[in-house]
Amino acid sequence: MPDIPMSADPHVHVARSPWWFKLLGRMLEPWVRIKRDPAEPATLLGSGAAVCYAIERDGTSDALILERACREAGLPSPMQLLDLPGRRRRSVFSLSRRHGWLFGRTDARGPREPIGQLIRALEDDPERDIQIVPVSIYVGRAPNRESGWFSVLFAENWLVVGRFRRMLALLLNGRDTVVHFSAPVSLRSVLAESAGISPERLTRKIARVLRTHFRRIRAAVIGPDLSHRRTVVDAVLNTEPVRDAIAATASKENIPLAKAERRARDFALEISADYSHPVVRSSSFLLSNFWNKLYDGIAMHHFDKARAAAPGHEVVYVPCHRSHTDYLLLSYQLHHSGVVPPHIAAGVNLNLPVVGPILRRGGAFFLRRSFKGNALYSVVFNEYLAQLVDRGVPLEYFIEGGRSRTGRLLAPRAGMLVMTLRAFLRAPRRPVLFQPVYIGYEKLMEGKSYIGELSGKPKEKESLLGLIRGLKVLRQRYGHVTLNFGEPILLTPMLDAAAPDWREAGADPDTKPEWMNRVVDDLAERIQVNINRAADVNPINLLALALLATPKHAMAENDLLAQIELTKAMLQELPYSDRVTITPMNPQGVIAYGEQMGWIRRVRHPLGDVLVTEGEQAVLLSYFRNNVLHLNAAAAWVAACFLNNRRMSRSSVVRLGRIIYPFIQGELFLPWDEDGFAAQVQDTIEFFVRRGILEASAEGRVLERGPGQDDGAYQLRVIARSMLQAFERYYIAIAALVKNGPHTMTAGELETACTLTAQRLSLLNELSAPEFFDKALFRGFIQKLREARVVWTDDAGKLDFSEALEEMVRDARVILAREVRHSILKITPGGENDRDFDARPPVDPDDGSAGPSLHDRHVANERERHHGQH
Q1: How far is the C-alpha of 182 from the C-alpha of 53, rounded, in Å?
Q2: Diameter over CA atoms, the chain
Q3: Cα angle: 852, vertex 853, 858; to 5 degrees
Q4: Residue with more model confidence, 710 or 225
Q5: What is the CB-side half-sphere exposure of residue 37 using CA atoms within 13 A?
Q6: Cβ of 313: how many Cβ atoms within 10 Å?
Q7: Is the pTM of this model over 0.85?
Q8: How would you classify the pairing of strands 177-181 and 105-107?
């Protein structure tokens, strides 16, 4: 037993604990295991001053736990006696006191008497000081799998429990007891700072500060007190915007005000979470078994950085959205790591019988897909979100709007970001921090349904029956899951940069500052970029990058080993970001793991085994290639330049890369500007030269690959084909537009024409990538053309363009083979404006000329249009 230090204060006396106290301590000892926070709390204490502990709740069990924690940590015992005016008392007091043995009531005025005695003691002796140490005691914050199902019902929460319930909690969860020591407060310093305040007022002030402190610690450990859903709903309905919206609805629809109020309340109840700490802990218990049956492991990277950045902020988790399990995985991992699970914005389609109430009690709040045409619902939802932000509740939502069916990040939908920003502007008490999270899988439960939806089948509506039918997927194993926490994004610096006077915008919630859309768009872009910068490269990603780049999705084992080794080396030597993680498996281990997971099949052959992925598996594998396609973008561009060219100047590779980059960047949320991408291309070229895949001559100005049968040329082809379909999609779009001519197609008609062309091309060439004809990707490319002013809309709503677009079509000859271009042109629907795109020669691969950059073309187009107007 460690020696207990004695206080230098002569007014402190060592006293023996009552015999019954010692007896209860011995009886309790086998049932309680204490974890101290911090582990060495003695370092917090000052010297020479007496110690008095303040605990949150009155109770013998808390006193026993405190006495043992102090003894084990070498701290002064709470059982020591302090000399106070008129009496001696123990060195501990609680903020609440229960009167009576069995059915006593709690008296919140409990701390005033001991605090008043401590203050009077210091007033009587100006040389004396007492340090008050707040100590928080939690029994069963997060029971583990071994604790048993029943124990979660008696875990720590916000309820004030009786002695019997506390006894059960100790018996069931005592081995998971946390004792949190806070920094001591010098009572003498408080007296000096509060000169002129009466002792009664000072007593009340200290008690109030201690209550606030304990509430903050409890909120950090077990989450905010949101157990009373009705109080949150009432707060929403009593806000001025909701009252105004109720009155407006009653007037517009000519209905009684009471009916409009009931409708608003129904909306609030439909939306709001009904957070329950016991349900969260019960769910954690269930999910532990569920994950163990489903996955081989869940890994988290860079979580310590995220946890260090969070204190003092309103944290909004913004993960990518790839599966329904995203919700559960992130919340479970946060809870398991000692962080409060966030409130999650979920689609109202998940508010199913049985499932909906459980999700709601786990922190889910529900929103409709669209708020259009329902002003009252919109106001109620906005005010509910504002209440959560104002109360400091961590949030989670997916800015993609829905699950990605292709494996790529979807274009962000900024609705939730706008509402969060508005809530912060109204009450900027706590700075907002957005925490991007990348979630990487090795197999998806929804994989087959994604294939059907991308092939044109209607999306299956969520239902309880469908959920029950879907339970059969639980018989499979889904490998490992990785959660990577990206670089957090602080909202305040973005607002300061965009509008230094942004704090004035919160005065009127109805106004929309002109800078808001710009800030929201920039924020959404940065979130997606930071998610991609935290990617995890797992074995299935590596196999998909290699095998899907071959015509029959098959490779000789030696070639596959070499390709995986090259890809890993490239990712390690040219790091995309310091938060990207890469599987430690060697190439042989990657192949063996792919066979074990059923993604690839080995075909035995005397001249060497062949690894192949076939049919539906190949289509599903494209999802995992797309997860990490952005990491391969610069290398794929360099390699694509040598698909149809043996030799090419370095400057042409870089300059053409500048032209294509805005479109790749918009599709894959890449982190660089044009100069940054050019630098990445240069570094990639140097990597290929070091590996002997490219040769540099003429002092590095000219690059050359080996002949077609060379191993280096083969590896380049594999790398290039990972992005080749994107380049083909770009060619389809610009070819369709130029072929039909200016002023003939609307943007919607062009999207449809592109989608039909890509679908037919996919059928003719057996492409196993459903995203090849994804309409959203064509829409994004057309939007980028419009942003660059290469394409614009005329007064009739038709698309117009300049000669720069035709030049882009001709530049495609550098990348796409003649048969591919002709096949696309043959299929693409066109009118009488059909043209010969191969009439002019492409860029000379050796002359260093790649034509004007996209920016130069934009400037020339603007000058041309301006000149035409005059």
Answers
A1: 10
A2: 106
A3: 95
A4: 710
A5: 13
A6: 19
A7: no
A8: unpaired
